[in-house]
Specification:
- By secondary structure, the chain is of the alpha/beta class.
- The chain has a single domain (8-201), classed as 2-enoyl-CoA Hydratase, Chain A, domain 1, CATH 3.90.226.10.
- The chain is 43% helix and 16% strand.
- A six-stranded mixed β-sheet has the order 1-2-3-6-8-11, with helices on both faces. A three-stranded mixed β-sheet has the order 7-9-10.
- α1 (32-46) packs parallel to α3 (88-96).
- The longest helix is centred in the first third of the chain and has 15 residues, at 32-46.
Length: 261
């Protein structure tokens, strides 16, 4: 597969590898193929002990605008439930990668795009970055593991604000929330992320791997599965007329009109 055909590009500079989402004309919206290519690339990085840090980036003006709904579509189950493809499994390998990872975020990082960034250890954003979880505006429910990740990252009150309002945050507000670790001028974003990765790569690799493993293990007490009652609430939302209205509104480029049924 040539670079022009690949939806995830891989480059290397010393001990640092960069994986770049490569659908700039679609704001790097994720397809099934992109997720598969990303997981293969992450698995390849995991097998190479000479790599000491990883950067995840997006080509063009956006980091990642979320799932490509036209490409992935929705699934209607026997009970009428609308389901979007679950991306947690595809991103799990990135989260569990034994080396430090950095998301280099410019432009939009929305819904699944922000979820991708949250699976990285650190996030550096350009001043034009925008991010949020506007799923309530579609009638959808944030996956339970992602709710836990948001609680870990920004805390309870800010998680409630993000999920209940569905508002998109600019880079400065995202920094206040703790979603990103650094905001820099757009022109400096690539150099800043690369320098951070290079600085990390100079540290003792066994120490870095041990500390990341300890962090993953310390967070491992949390269940990845919701309770039956919480899962049923999410299923009820997925079966509702509201979720169909929300998805129609996306394709028709309008604000949805929800009726609570």
């Amino acid at each position: 597969m040539s670079d022009s055909d690949a939806q995830v590009l891989q480059t290397r500079d010393g001990a640092v590898v960069t994986l770049t989402l490569n659908r700039p004309d679609k704001r790097n919206a994720m397809t099934l193929r992109m997720l598969e290519e990303l997981q293969r690339a992450v698995d390849e990085v995991a097998r190479d002990d000479s790599i000491r840090a990883l950067i995840v980036a997006g080509a063009g003006k956006a980091f990642c605008a979320g799932l490509d709904l036209k490409d992935l579509g929705t699934t209607n189950g026997a009970d009428g439930m609308v389901e979007l493809p679950e991306i947690e499994g595809s991103l799990h390998a990135l989260e569990e990668l034994p080396i430090p990872t950095i998301a280099m975020m410019q432009g939009d990082a929305i819904a699944g795009g922000l979820e991708l960034a949250l699976h990285c250890d650190l996030r550096v954003a350009g001043e034009d970055a925008r991010m949020g979880m506007p799923l309530a505006r579609l009638g959808l429910v944030v996956p339970y593991p992602l709710t836990q990740k948001l609680l870990d990252t920004v805390g309870t009150v800010k998680t409630k604000h993000m999920l209940f309002t569905g508002k998109i945050l600019n880079a400065a507000r995202a920094l206040e929330f703790g979603l990103v670790t650094q905001v820099v001028p757009n022109a400096d974003l690539a150099d800043t992320a690369r320098k951070l990765a290079a600085d990390i790569a100079l540290n003792a690799p066994l120490s870095l791997r041990a500390m990341k493993a300890a962090i993953i293990e310390a967070n491992g007490f949390r269940s990845r599965d919701a309770s039956r009652e919480t899962a049923e609430l999410a299923k009820a939302a997925a079966r509702s007329s509201d979720v169909r209205e929300g998805l129609r509104a996306v394709f028709e480029k309008r604000r949805a009109k929800f009726e609570g049924r």
